[in-house]
Specification:
With 282 residues, the protein is mainly α. Helices cover 67% and strands 0% of the residues. InterPro entries: UstE-like.
């Protein structure tokens, strides 16, 4: 298929699965020592970075070096920034209530239950979502002409998402650090900056980052078709899975949140509703 080295790519898939597993197992060991599973959220970004690095190393001699380096750097910058942000945000805090509730449902050995339902599952998701990153490393042909336009579009989408995520996280951190900060109704709800237009600028940023990375795989039609599942899975995770849906369930009873949700888009950035009626956006 257009000279794509499917056999070598398959070997790379196996190695990247091993890299994701290694990161999660190492994190699990640290979690057992600390008695806290929230550190797995730090491993999420590190897992993607490890996969990108392994696929870059194994794909040497295949694909275009510029494209390989580009997709590796974009993934690593996103992953390392996210890991660092989550590590700093969680410093000094106890266990995440999400994991407390999850482990409360454990049957049998709670450690094995955590390994299976948290670490191995997240490792599998890292491998699946990163398929475009892995495949792009092997796409043949130079980045020129239409391919250069596609690469520029991928970077533009990625950069927009990265800025949304980074700026949104910084704005929320400043808000939390100010004990007197309030929204327009006087409630302790963040509705400033990007948070005025979407309730989840960080998740929306992730959404764009991974669709941007997927565009790098679209340099080969067959690869694009095979890896389309990855941004779709990430989109579902962000909107229907452990992202937006779960977080809003936790915030539902916070004073002022219902009013904020009524005037602010749920995901895609939109102007806030002036009358505060109905839910804007998805």
């Amino acid at each position: 298929m257009n000279g794509f080295p499917w056999g070598d790519f398959a070997v790379g898939l196996a190695a990247c699965a091993g890299a994701a597993l290694a990161v999660m197992l190492a994190t699990f060991a640290v979690a057992l020592v600390k008695g806290m599973h929230r550190i797995v959220d730090v491993a999420w970004g590190l897992g993607f970075t490890a996969v990108a690095a392994v696929s870059f190393a194994l794909s040497a001699g295949h694909g275009d070096d510029g494209r390989r380096l580009l997709v590796t750097l974009l993934t690593a910058v996103w992953g390392l920034r996210l890991a660092g942000h989550i590590a700093l945000r969680g410093r000094g805090h106890g266990e995440d209530p999400r994991y407390e509730r999850l482990l409360a449902r454990a049957r049998g050995n709670p450690r094995l239950y955590a390994l299976r339902t948290v670490y191995l599952l997240q490792g599998a998701l890292v491998w699946l979502v990163s398929l475009p990153v892995q495949a792009t490393q092997y796409v043949p042909g130079p980045v020129s002409g239409p391919q250069a336009v596609l690469a520029a579009a991928a970077v533009a989408v990625w950069l927009t998402g990265f800025l949304f995520e980074t700026v949104g996280d910084a704005q929320l951190a400043r808000f939390k650090a100010d004990p007197d900060a309030r929204d327009i109704t006087g409630a302790r709800i963040m509705d400033r900056g990007l948070w005025r237009y979407t309730r989840h600028p960080n998740y929306f940023g992730d959404f764009l980052v991974w669709w941007g990375l997927y565009l790098t795989a679209c340099a080969d039609a067959a690869v694009a078709a095979v890896t389309l599942v990855s941004p779709l899975v990430m989109s579902l995770l962000l909107t229907k899975g452990s992202g937006k849906r779960l977080l809003e369930r936790q915030l539902a009873n916070r004073p002022g949140y219902a009013e904020y949700a009524a005037r602010t888009s749920g995901f895609f950035p939109l102007p806030p509703r002036r009358d505060g009626t109905g839910r804007a956006g998805v």
